[in-house]
Design a protein that fits this description.
The chain is mainly α. The chain is elongated and about 55 Å long. Helix 1 runs antiparallel to helix 2. The longest helix is centred in the middle third of the chain and has 21 residues.
Length: 91
């Protein structure tokens, strides 16, 4: 755990803005449209790297993934409802 006795460390909670192309990939995936899952996974990883780099550049001490690979709660809820009949809910 990162600690400081000299100053208050800076972090944040919650999601950070996602790149437009990632949002489009997420939308296709959540709506069950054809999509390239490997490209999606690769894009999530690069979006996480970008958002971590930006946080470091801004002086954030304790960085996060910015929830780049997570859909909104409403989308998650909708996906779970569609999969409820199979008894499986995952993202």
């Amino acid at each position: 755990m990162k600690r400081s006795t000299d100053r208050i460390l800076v972090t944040h909670a919650g999601s950070l803005a996602r790149p437009k192309d990632l949002l489009e990939m997420m939308d296709a995936r959540l709506r069950g449209k054809p999509h390239d899952n490997e490209a999606y996974v690769t894009r999530v990883r690069s979006a996480v790297a970008e958002v971590v780099r930006k946080q470091v550049e801004c002086g954030v001490d304790i960085v996060t993934d910015g929830e780049q690979g997570k859909a909104s709660f409403n989308a998650y809820d909708e996906l779970c409802m569609r999969r409820a009949s199979s008894g499986v809910c995952y993202m």
